Amino acid sequence: MDIVFSQVDHCYMKGTPFEKVALKDFSLTIPSGSFTAVIGHTGSGKSTFIQHINGLLRPSSGTVQVGSYVIKAGEKKVNLKGLRKEVGFVFQYPEHQLFEETVEKDITFGPVNFGLSKEKAQKRARELMPLVGLQEELLSVSPFQLSGGQMRRVAIAGVLASRPSVLVLDEPAASLDPEGRVNIMNLFYDYHKTHQTTTILVTHHMEDAAKYADQIIVLHNGMVEMIGGRELIFERVSRLNEIGLDLPKSVSFLQNIKKKFELSEVPMEFDVKG
Ligand code: ADP
């Protein structure tokens, strides 16, 4: 499902001395089935932005459209349950959201809550275990007996179990070592490719944005500073530097980029000495 923001503003604590405009005149489209990366400094509005996609936050003005769901500023009646079934959220440290007695109960909680029979939800849980890199035997154990990495995979399976059409990932690989990060990111990328899930990744890692995303959105001071394909990274390097978003200068990053865009030369700005 397409996601369309039309002239959206979001203001926290409106009318108080602490009033803060966190999104200004936000207009953008995230095409159905795309993989979009959202980058920007802390405070640039990333989390305010993504929380509009499942109605956790409402626009102060403007309209957010997610498929057939329309959320207009000031409108009270929104079918949030339907929207939240369609939009899966993986927050930072999703393992903190585990609470059930067993892994199976945690994974099936979402789909059962959305009306799926227990048996069908359990079947989904069994199918998801290998997909998230866990052994099926773990379904019967307490999630709190697992390692941190395993807990995160259980939490991810719990989000995927509702088969969302849109997946919002807020730094899903936060605090993982490089290998763990690649594993988790590949898991989401494979899932996206297999199910054509519209995927929105909030990340501080330019490498991940360049590696996985078809579309990149750069936020700055609550505004859409840039939006476009990955090649945008090359076209506006100096502006990215100006707003403090430095690109990694590692040789492997540059080689990957070169390969990805089939460039014979790395643009001048990327030239690394030695
Ligand atoms: P990011 O996710 O890019 O770090 P946020 O969307 O969290 O950015 O924040 C955007 C701006 O809104 C920041 O200035 C932040 O301080 C402010 N903000 C975020 N949440 C709240 C809140 N609940 N109340 C007031 N201001 C907030």
Automatic annotation (TrEMBL):
Residues 6-246 form the ABC transporter domain. It comes from the Bacteria. Keywords: ATP-binding, Cell membrane, Membrane, Nucleotide-binding, Translocase, Transport. InterPro entries: AAA+_ATPase, ABC_transporter-like_ATP-bd, ABC_transporter-like_CS, ABC_transpr_CbiO/EcfA_su, ECF_ABC_transporter_ATP-bd, EcfA2, P-loop_NTPase. SMART domains: AAA. Its main location: membrane. It holds the Pfam family ABC_tran. It is found in: Cell membrane. It is an enzyme of class 7 (translocase). Belongs to the ABC transporter superfamily. Energy-coupling factor EcfA family. ATP-binding (A) component of a common energy-coupling factor (ECF) ABC-transporter complex. This is Energy-coupling factor transporter ATP-binding protein EcfA2. It comes from Halalkalibacter kiskunsagensis.
